[in-house]
Amino acid sequence: MNAPWLHIIGIGDDGLASLSPAVRALVDNAELLVGGARHLSFVSAACPILNWADGFDETLEKVLAARGQQVVVLASGDPQWYGIGATLSRHLDPEEMVVLPLPGAFSLAAARLCWPLAEVVTTTIHGRPIEALRRHLAPGRRLLILSQDGESPAKVAKLLTEDGWGPSGMTVLEHLGGAAENIRRGTAKTWKERCCANLNTIAVSCHPGPHARILPLTPGLPDDSFEHDGQLTKREVRAVTVAALSLQPGESLWDLGAGSGSVAIEALRAVPGARALAVERDAVRAARIARNALALGVPEICILQGNMPEILAEIETSPDVIFVGGGVGHDGLLQQAWGYLNRGGRLVANGVTIAAERALLDFQDANGGDLVRLAVSHPKAVGRQMVWESKAPVTQLRAVKP
User: Fold this and answer.
1) Buried-most residue among 29, 147, 313, 341 (CB within 10 A)?
2) Could you read off the pLDDT of 118-131 as tens digits, one per residue?
3) Cβ of 211: how many Cβ atoms within 10 Å?
């Protein structure tokens, strides 16, 4: 078993005063000290130091190369909550490192606001797209958001207001736990361009205005939630399709022939921690997928534009789940997708045309799986009467790779 050589120490905004004598001794006796500029400013170090600002990847390599030395990494509050501790945990065995946290920004903010932390959505826009906040907007929901800088509150207020959530309450908590601690309050629509300290946490109490789009995380969003040119898996079929994918946190989904990206987008909204790659040959539609992803709060979706099946050979990772929504009838596409799928992975494919249905039947004969026929009808006015208008039925294949 490896002895711990790396200590990741949470430090408060009051600097060394936040550390116990034992933890302070670890800092004083470090052979290498690592941190951001603010953290390093708290310490007068006699040992070599590394600053993350000098290049994160390069600094990370130097930290890992120092294995065997007594290395101390300073971090804000709880290093495992959107912090450097979480990153280093992916590179080291648990026996090599010790994490010594303090109350982090989320805990301190919840304490100041008297919010039950277990009932709050905690997220970050530090180095991440702000559009991801849209996934979390719901009446009465409370959000705690780690900021990028002092401009972040105004950007959050602008997004909320433009999306119809202007009445939402906003509280910005600056320098939590430090001598400069300060709290500012307002609403999104009245926040304007108020300047805040770079070190701040944003609290949002979500309240929709009359024109807010209130969208559930369950699959089956209204079709007009998506920008599309008709290449869209319709609402009822989409809900069944996302359920058939059975996507799990940590799994990877390929959406082949993605069209507007609706299936991959809804799958990501429903399953936090999953990953999705949308493959679309048409450049206009690929750009449309990107806009839909931003509008619906899943900017992390990866979009690959090119022709299938050739472009699939360029993808370096293998998926756990594949959905084929376009090009089902192309010779060999289903079998090629099946070859890329991880063992135990799931393939779901929808077909409407006779050629697509024939391809699904041939694939089932060769590889097994279940077929389902989905038929949806909507009422339509004919004169003074209402009749049912049937949409083209969809044949759906569901197969699990041995």
Assistant:
1) 147
2) 999 999 999 999 99
3) 9
Cβ-based neighbour number of residue 29 at 10 Å: 11
- pLDDT tens by residue, 9-41: 999 999 999 999 999 999 999 999 999 999 999
Closest CA to 59 of 27, 16, 98, 88: 88
Of 149, 182, 188, 158, residue with least CA distance to 170:
188
In contact, 13 and 175? CB cutoff 8 Å: yes
Q: Which of 127, 158, 149, 143 is nearest to 196 (CA)?
A: 149
Q: Can the peptide bond before residue 309 be classed as cis, meaning omega within 30 degrees of 0?
A: yes
Instruction: Kindly report the pTM of this predicted structure.
Output: 0.91
For residue 309 the two structure tokens come to 């099946």
List of residues 6+ apart from 275 with CB closer than 8 A: 251, 252, 253, 300, 302
Specify whether the CB–CB gap between 130 and 137 falls below 8 A.
Answer: no
Distance CA 263, CA 166 (A): 29
